[in-house]
């Protein structure tokens, strides 16, 4: 099956390798810096055409070089510009020194900058390469700029953010716009970095994509290009059994709603048939609310084992409202050779029993999808969760490899990871998805896609994006029921 190409996300180290490769092929690195600086200036002029003055803050490296170029471009465009530099300009090297020499604006030391109303700040201090806390003098400037609420245009990344993790290193600018080059970096998309970047613009400064792709690290921004070609195409010969049969497990009589949300989401995601498997005590409660979804009585492990012999059952969802404990563990282990989405109570049931879960799914192609939020992730992977150096992407990848499963590490910056190292950061989910039942819908979408034959990672990534898209379609104030009606698969 032909796959569309998804655009990569590069870490700062990988982007530095791209820059070096570009220079080695004979591409003029100063020419690239000029394009970058002009892109920053263009964004500043477009977003703040009436600025009283632009204040360029230039650092001691190439990010500062971008700032010097931006200052020159702004002056040539007729804008009022002042410049303040961190460190001695005489110690600049390479392209940054050349950009400083070509800049018509005389700079003053950074400590001399006293922010005032009407300033538009161009942040060219550090960019994405920072790996330690910002100096106290920079933190003080960041605080003063933030206190006045001044607009900030960041070159590459707001200074003070880690480009690899999106975490704040002491203090960081709150940018209104961030202009980066060639590809986003993890720090642009992971929280809190995403919130601090403001509007993100990715500008192509002319580095050949073959050089970028040569440094790609199997990390992408989640979107249809990553998985759309895996979605099944309906033909004249299609019928419900060819579209997959999803089984969803219900909790007891007073805990049936979550399973119904998952089941309906599975139908909306394209599964041809969906059956809720419920204990006898929950049959009446479920039957009173079901129409297109079928119902089957499953009280114990023996009943599940008999049902699961039906080859037309192609995937299962276990966890939403199911209950925590030995019964959940037994059911999961009985399905260890089947495609399974494990959510909520299903995940919590393996707290302290993770080896039991992981060993059951260790062989073969990944066919387990785990959907932990922060707390559930810590229950399944306590050592990984506690690591203070790893990014959220690093953690999701490590968890996926350990569990031989696709991981949906949920949150406002959900990360999806596969055991082979592929990972995607999702960015389309609105805050309104933080509502009761939303996760049950997500699990059902993933189950519905797996039932149709999507591999675990592609099903997980598609489910997260479709879930976010449904949230945007449903609008502010949505309920889980609203999400169901808003589920839409890309054509």
TrEMBL record:
HAMAP family: NADHX_dehydratase, NADHX_epimerase. AMP binds at residues 410-414, 439. Homotetramer. In the C-terminal section; belongs to the NnrD/CARKD family. Belongs to the NnrD/CARKD family. K(+) binds at residues 63, 123, 159. (6S)-NADPHX binds at residues 62-66, 127-133, 156, 258, 321, 373, 440. This is Bifunctional NAD(P)H-hydrate repair enzyme. It catalyses: (6R)-NADHX = (6S)-NADHX; (6S)-NADHX + ADP = AMP + phosphate + NADH + H(+); (6R)-NADPHX = (6S)-NADPHX; (6S)-NADPHX + ADP = AMP + phosphate + NADPH + H(+). Bifunctional enzyme that catalyzes the epimerization of the S- and R-forms of NAD(P)HX and the dehydration of the S-form of NAD(P)HX at the expense of ADP, which is converted to AMP. This allows the repair of both epimers of NAD(P)HX, a damaged form of NAD(P)H that is a result of enzymatic or heat-dependent hydration. Its cofactor is Mg(2+); K(+). NCBIfam families: yjeF_cterm (TIGR00196), yjeF_nterm (TIGR00197). It comes from Allorhizobium borbori. Pfam families: Carb_kinase, YjeF_N.
């Amino acid at each position: 099956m032909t796959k569309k190409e998804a655009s990569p996300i590069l870490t700062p180290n990988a982007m530095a390798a791209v820059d070096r490769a570009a220079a080695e092929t004979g591409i003029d690195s100063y020419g690239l810096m000029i394009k970058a600086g002009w892109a920053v200036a263009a964004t500043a002029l477009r977003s703040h055409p009436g600025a009283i003055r632009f204040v360029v803050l230039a650092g001691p490296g190439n990010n500062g070089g971008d700032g010097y170029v931006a200052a020159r471009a702004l002056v040539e465009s007729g804008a009022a510009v002042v410049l303040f530099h961190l460190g001695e300009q005489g110690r600049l090297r390479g392209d940054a020194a050349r950009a400083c020499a070509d800049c018509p604006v005389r700079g003053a030391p950074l400590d001399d900058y006293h922010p005032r109303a009407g300033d538009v700040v161009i942040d060219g201090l550090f960019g994405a390469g920072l790996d330690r806390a910002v100096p106290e003098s920079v933190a003080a400037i960041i605080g003063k700029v933030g206190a006045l609420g001044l607009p900030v245009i960041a070159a590459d990344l707001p200074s003070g953010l880690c480009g690899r993790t999106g975490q704040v290193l002491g203090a960081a600018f709150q940018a209104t716009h961030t202009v980066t080059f060639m590809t986003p970096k993890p720090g642009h998309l992971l929280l809190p970095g995403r919130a601090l970047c403001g509007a993100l613009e990715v500008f192509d400064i002319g580095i050949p994509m073959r050089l970028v792709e040569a440094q790609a690290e199997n990390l992408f921004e989640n979107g249809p290009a990553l998985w759309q070609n895996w979605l099944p195409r309906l033909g004249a010969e299609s019928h419900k059994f060819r579209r997959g049969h999803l089984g969803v497990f219900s909790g007891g009589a007073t805990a049936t709603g979550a399973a119904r949300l998952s089941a309906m989401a599975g139908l909306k995601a394209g599964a041809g048939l969906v059956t809720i498997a419920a204990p006898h005590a929950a049959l009446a409660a479920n039957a009173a609310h079901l129409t297109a979804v079928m119902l089957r009585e499953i009280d114990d492990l023996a009943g599940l084992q008999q049902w699961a012999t039906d080859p037309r059952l192609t995937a299962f969802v276990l966890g939403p409202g199911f209950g925590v404990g030995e019964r959940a563990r037994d059911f999961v282990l009985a399905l260890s050779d089947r495609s399974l989405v494990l959510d909520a109570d299903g995940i919590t049931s393996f707290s302290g029993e993770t080896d039991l879960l992981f060993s059951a799914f260790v062989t073969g192609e990944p066919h387990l999808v785990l959907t932990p939020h922060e707390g559930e992730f810590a229950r399944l992977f306590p050592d990984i969760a506690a690591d203070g150096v790893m990014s959220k992407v690093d953690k999701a990848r490590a968890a996926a490899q350990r569990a031989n499963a696709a991981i949906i590490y949920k949150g406002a910056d959900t990360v999806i990871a596969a055991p082979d190292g592929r990972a995607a950061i999702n960015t389309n989910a609105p805050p309104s998805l933080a509502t009761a039942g939303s996760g049950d819908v997500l699990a059902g979408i993933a189950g519905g896609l797996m039932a149709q034959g999507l591999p675990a990672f592609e099903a997980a990534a598609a489910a997260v994006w479709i879930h976010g898209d449904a949230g945007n379609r449903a609008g502010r104030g949505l309920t889980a029921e609203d999400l169901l009606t808003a589920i839409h698969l890309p054509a």
